[in-house]
Specification:
mainly alpha
Length: 131
């Protein structure tokens, strides 16, 4: 049982309670959606639509995770959204590499891919802790 006094160490506090993975998952999705949306705002063409769609999906997942309703469905949705975000990041990397070069492609796809991997990992961890 977690305590709220000064005797808890930081490692006990970070691992305490079943809400921590959900909180970290919500923050990860929020950061991913904001970063992906910013990239979508900067990049033009059909790649913009893909990135903005991934950003909207990330905001929807953030709202679902934070609401704490239907936990099993929400965490499954988060894992699927993580895979979709990774796919969007890889497609955008390929599209940017074809038209603008490899340096810009790696920068354009890093945020959705890393955010999707983080969301997928945290979703699976939260699923294991919810059991």
């Amino acid at each position: 049982m977690a305590r709220d006094d000064d005797t808890m160490t930081s490692s006990e506090w970070l691992g305490a309670g079943p809400g921590f993975p959900r909180m970290a998952l919500g923050l990860a999705w929020l950061a991913t959606s904001l970063g992906t949306g910013l990239l979508g705002w900067i990049i033009s063409g059909p790649r913009r639509a893909l990135l903005l769609a991934a950003a909207v999906l990330g905001l929807a997942v953030t709202g679902a995770v934070v609401s704490n309703r239907h936990r099993a469905i929400t965490l499954g949705f988060s894992a699927l959204a993580g895979m979709a975000t990774i796919a969007v990041g890889l497609v955008v990397m390929v599209l940017v590499a074809v038209s603008d070069g490899l340096d810009i492609a790696s920068a354009a796809g890093v945020v959705p891919v890393v955010g999707g991997l983080l969301g997928l990992r945290l979703s699976r961890r939260a699923q294991r802790m919810a059991m």
